[in-house]
Write a structure and sequence with these properties.
single chain; mainly beta; Neuraminidase; 3% helix
Length: 319
């Protein structure tokens, strides 16, 4: 299996070699039952969150995962968002049933972690605002001013943590939110676009918290979202086949004007989750291992290693 550096090199030269558009390239395979969920870039490699493996792992240029965060610092780790400008990594830790060795008490724990990128020390922990509800924080996004946004897919809410705040506060909750997943800031910084899983995309106005549906296209079943210029790269894992889509938006970011399929189905897309854009590449988790676990945490038959794949992207204005 090619190492990460080799796969990146292949992807960067794909166009020059007249390779077919949207060719999916395997960057790395992670053996063992990790159940990976999210990626975050760091200097010289990638960080990968693990739900079953309970932690954060660094994937160096050889493609081998090595534990990055101390094993006792987190429970099952879901969303990641690096903020190198402020020297921190934001991560969601939750006592999911699929996390190895999780206790009954830990299943009620879900918190946002602020981690120093240099020392790897957990600087602060921010619990879900209402632990009596369904405390399962999910995806994370960071604004240029350091404001953090995090979704709660089980509690139908999106939270915000401004610089200097000592607790998460509710940005939006309740209908029409059903199960908010991935979220990205619009280029003007005035709104969040949220994957509302079974209900399509929604836009949250950051000044008022007002929720409006994003129109255009078949937008249900979306999980991870990554902005690329005036488009959003969306991973659809709600339904078969799984897909990677490029959603082109209107200037006001209220409507999807075009839906382009970048990848669809096959063994390479098995419960894909989230990704990042690096140097004109979409690097994403194409096989997460979610299909190897029951909802109650029991493991099914082994479905093979987790996989990180790469798609080369066309240049986007504003990316």
């Amino acid at each position: 299996m090619p190492g990460l550096a080799f796969a990146l090199s292949m992807a960067l030269t794909a166009n020059a070699q007249a390779q077919p558009a949207h060719r999916l390239i395997t960057a790395a395979e992670l053996k063992g039952p990790l159940l990976v969920e999210a990626l975050a870039p760091i200097q010289g490699g990638l960080l990968v969150s693990a739900v079953h493996g309970r932690g954060i792992f660094e994937l160096d240029r050889s493609g081998v995962p090595r534990r990055w965060l101390a094993a006792d610092a987190a429970l099952g780790v879901f969303g990641l968002a690096a903020d190198p400008e402020h020297g921190v990594l934001w991560a969601v830790s939750a006592g999911a049933a699929q996390a190895v060795g999780v206790t009954e008490a830990e299943r009620r724990v879900s918190e946002l972690l602020k981690i120093d990128l240099a020392s790897r020390e957990v600087l602060a922990r921010y619990p879900a605002p209402d632990p009596g509800a369904a405390p399962r924080l999910g995806d994370v996004a960071v604004g240029p001013d350091g404001t953090v946004y995090v979704s709660n897919p089980l509690g139908a809410a999106v939270y915000r943590l401004r610089p200097g705040d000592d607790a998460l506060t509710v940005l939006a909750s309740g209908a029409p939110l059903k199960s908010p997943q991935g979220l990205v800031l619009t280029p003007d910084g005035e709104a969040l676009i949220v994957a509302n899983y079974g209900a399509g995309l929604h836009r949250i106005d950051l000044s008022s918290g007002a929720l409006t549906a994003v129109s255009g296209g078949a937008l249900r079943g979306l999980d991870g979202l990554t902005r690329h210029g005036r488009s959003i790269l969306a991973i659809r894992n709600g339904g078969k086949p799984a897909k990677v889509l490029r959603l082109v938006f209107d200037p006001g970011w209220t409507r999807v004007t075009k839906v382009e399929e970048l990848a669809s189905g096959g063994p390479d897309l098995d419960e894909p989750t989230t990704g990042i854009v690096r140097e004109g590449l979409f690097v994403f988790i194409s096989r997460s291992q979610w299909s190897a676990f029951e909802d109650d945490g029991d493991r099914k038959a082994d479905v093979g290693p987790a996989r990180i794949s790469i798609l080369q992207l066309e240049k986007e204005e504003g990316s």
